[in-house]
Amino acid sequence: MINLEVFTDTFMVHAWISGTIVAILCTFVSYFVVVRRASFAAHALPQVGFAGGAGAVFFNINPIYGLSLFSIIGALLIGYLSDEEGNDVVTALILVATLGVGALFLGLSDKYAAGAYSLLFGQIVGVSTEQVIDTAVLGGLCVFLIIFLYRPLLLASISKEIAKSRGIPVRFLEMCFMVVLGLASAITVPIVGALLCFSLLIAPMAASTYLTSNPRKVLLLAMLFSLITIWSSLILAYFSGLPIGFLVSIIGAVFYMCSRIINFIR
Question: Which family does it belong to (predicted)?
Fold first, then answer.
């Protein structure tokens, strides 16, 4: 008999809502991450945000505020300090500096070790009503910005020279996208965790690109994969007690490997 509490418990309802928002958001953001080859930044920003989340936990305030602040500042610094060809060195230096700050907050007190653990690996029981509202508001803002900037951002991602020749402010668009990526990271971390947030941002989109080259179909497949990944991870985490971030990464890897095999066979 199916245990319906997985769908009706208050904390699980919060997790379902937040997880669905995160899956949809990651689909839109990851499309441009793949097109722009910004995977390292997508990997770094959740961990940059972790330092802010650890500070927020230490000061006993909502972690989403610290996550958002550090993720946005980190995204702006990466976008501003990188040259037009990108600069992984800048991203790496910002990453290690903020991880050091996060280690400082963790070293000041071990009282909030459980909160820090949930930020690193994700925890479905840690999603409160306030966090659901914050996730919905910030997620809606990110999706609106992606839709609003879609055409010029896509052109600038494919060819900066053509975009510049048409008078598109490429540098401004890049900064806007980095802010959206930072916010998306901040929203995703409380659900999946800082260490494995990258898997949800990359794996579904990477898997879909091996199955079709049509941009619309790529987006639809990536959204389907993201939703299946987060929903199945929530169910498995509820019954097994395993960290949801671990489950998301494994299921995402399975989707990716299966898509590679299908692409190879055909």
Answer: Belongs to the ABC-3 integral membrane protein family.
